Amino acid sequence: MRRNSYFAFLLASFFVSACASSNGSVHVARQAELRDDYDRAVVEYSRALNTDPDNSDARTGLERAKTRAALMHYDRGRQLAAAGKLSEALTDYQIAAELNPQAKEVQEALRSAQEQLRTQVPVNRGGKTELESLIERARDLPAAGGYTLSNTPIPELVFQNGSSEDAIRAMARMANVNVMFDAAFRPVTPFSFEARAGQTFEEALRALGATTQTFFRITAPNTVTVIPDTPAKRREYEEEQVKTFYLSNADPKETADLLRIVIDARQIGVTTANSAITVRDTPDRIAAAAKLIQLLDKARAEVIVDTELLEVSRNSLLEYGLQIASPSTTGPTGINGTVDVNSPNMTLEKLRNLSASDVLLTGIPALYYRLLKTDRNSRVLANPHIRATDGLAAQARFGERVPVPVTVFSPIATGGVAQQPITSFNYENIGVNIDITPRIHMDSSVSLAMKISVTSISGAGFGGLPTFGNREISTQIRLNDGETNMLAGLIRDDDRKLVEGVPGLIDLPLVGHLFAHNQNTRDQTDVILMLTPHIVRVLDLTEEDLRPFMMGRDVGLPAAGGFDLQPPGVAPPPGQNQPPPQQNAPGGQQQPVQPITPTPPSQPPPQGQVPTTPPPMPAPGPPPLR
Question: What are phi and psi of 562, to 5 degrees?
Fold first, then answer.
């Protein structure tokens, strides 16, 4: 009885403590909501529900906190996405989607952020984008569905006075490679061959084939077939590959034309939308094309040309004098009037009886006096920074565009006379026009092919059409990086003098100009241009780019890369296979290389006699086939 009471007491104590813990978590969650810390509120409400699943306050508060927390993370994700921080925005969108899966706007924002991250080009730690790293890794991958041989070096081999077939079989045993011979293969005898340590089986077989006029093809896994090098066999065993090269900087059409000329590529397709070139050819030509494209697909050099343009204009006008002239709506231009006695029903009788009232005078001259002087100075300053690519033209226009009507005549009907006028407008650039084509040299100097023209409206011509004044310079200069060149002297000075007055009166000496309208106009314009090039990117060349590479001639030679003979005492370049060190004899002297001499076939023992030595064991690995 006492034991049952004890268990009941423990159960009640546990229930009371659980309720107290649940209520404490709900209290902490509500305090977090008041502080707008909805993430903490979600954690505390979840903890309260785990302790007491029947707590309705905790359940209601959890739903409310999840909704508010999802809205908070959604707003924060939008702010981060607007700032360009897509990775951080994606994290907030994912949290908001987990808290409120029914919100459609959250799901749409999440999908949009994921799509933008997929299309974005991230940069890895090596300073290259993932796309650049992918292209670099896939550059030397073998063709899909093809076979390759191991690059393990074979031991040193000296073969003397045998046949080429025996030499190939001996190398194949050392490399653990199956070898097959074409039915038309004929061994070369006598034959001597040396394969130094450090060569792979493929390299040694290529060198042997160049001597014996044979080539090989990898026809199965770890299996090669040796074939006579004849045009018919080449066509029979010729292999073709298809590879697509994606260009980042070079022009696809120019690159395709270069591949046709340099490596005699047979089938090339250009896709301008993706800047891609697809080549179908032999593996040797594909390898040469890959090497050539790697050398050509480099970013062009760029230069920033600091241009400072200063145009100074001065216009002065001086008008003075006394002028006797008739009044006019456009201003006095001289004496211009009429004396008229005509009247309706004029007869000779009336003409003999004329009086002063019958005479009508118009345009009676008056005395005008002028004294005016104007002086106007103006300055136009422009300081653009023109960034241009090596070999591409850059343009800068400072001024305005003026429409100029152009009329052409066309026939009304087909084959008729051109009599219908059609007027269109051409817009002329008025102001300062600069065309610059840079060329960046290896010595950090820049050549600028420039065409600078300064145009202005000089007046009106036939039919009121504007006439243009033009000052133009076409030149080519070469400047060092950061060197400033000043181009000045494009001065235009126009002086115009106008004298208007009564004939005879203005011709009087000394005082003639006082009784005339004198107008002196002077327009002065000077343009000063300063150019300073700054190289911002040079051509990214390495020593490997300047080194020539070998290209096969369809006779089994390596397609890209060659072999160098190292002089005695000179170590091979890093990255090349180096022969293993030879083991010294116990006396400290090196063991000489033992040549391999083919042994004649053993004679069968006489009938009834047991051989004294067992036959040699075959080499491990699959036997070569013929």
Answer: -135, -170
List Cα–Cα distances, 597 to 123, 154, 186, 291, in angstroms.
59, 18, 20, 42
Cα-flanking dihedrals φ and ψ of residue 291, to 5°?
Answer: -65, -40
In order of 38, 40, 88, 401, the CA distances from 64 in angstroms are 9, 13, 25, 64
Nearest to 386 by CA among 374, 398, 375, 378: 398
Closest CA to 165 of 210, 206, 212: 212
Burial class (CB in 10 A: 0-12, 13-18, 19+), 388: buried
Write the CB contacts of 325 (distance below 8 Å, at least 6 apart in sequence). 332, 333, 334, 335, 336, 365, 366, 368, 500, 502, 517
Q: Residues 268, 256: contact at Cβ < 8 Å? A: yes
Instruction: Compute the distance between CA of residue 91 and CA of residue 102 in angstroms, rounded to an integer.
Output: 18
Instruction: Tell me the backbone φ, ψ of residue 265, rounded to 5 degrees.
Output: -65, 140
Rounded Cα gap, residues 84 and 120, in angstroms: 11
Distance (Å, whole) CA 220 – CA 624: 13
Distance CA 150, CA 200 (A): 8
Q: Rounded to an integer, what distance in angstroms lies between the CA atom of residue 374 and that of residue 179?
A: 102
Q: Which of 441, 515, 508 is nearest to 480 (CA)?
A: 441
Per-residue pLDDT tens digits for 201-256? 888 888 888 888 898 888 888 889 999 988 888 888 877 888 899 998 889 999 99
Separation of alpha carbons 178 and 216, rounded Å: 12
| Cβ partners under 8 Å of residue 435, min gap 6 | 393, 394, 395, 450, 451, 452
Task: List, for residues 474-509, the tens digit of each pLDDT value.
Answer: 889 999 998 998 887 777 777 888 777 777 777 777
Question: Can you give the pTM of this predicted structure?
Answer: 0.53
> Is residue 316 classed exposed, middle or buried when 0-12, 13-18 and 19+ CB atoms within 10 A define those classes?
middle
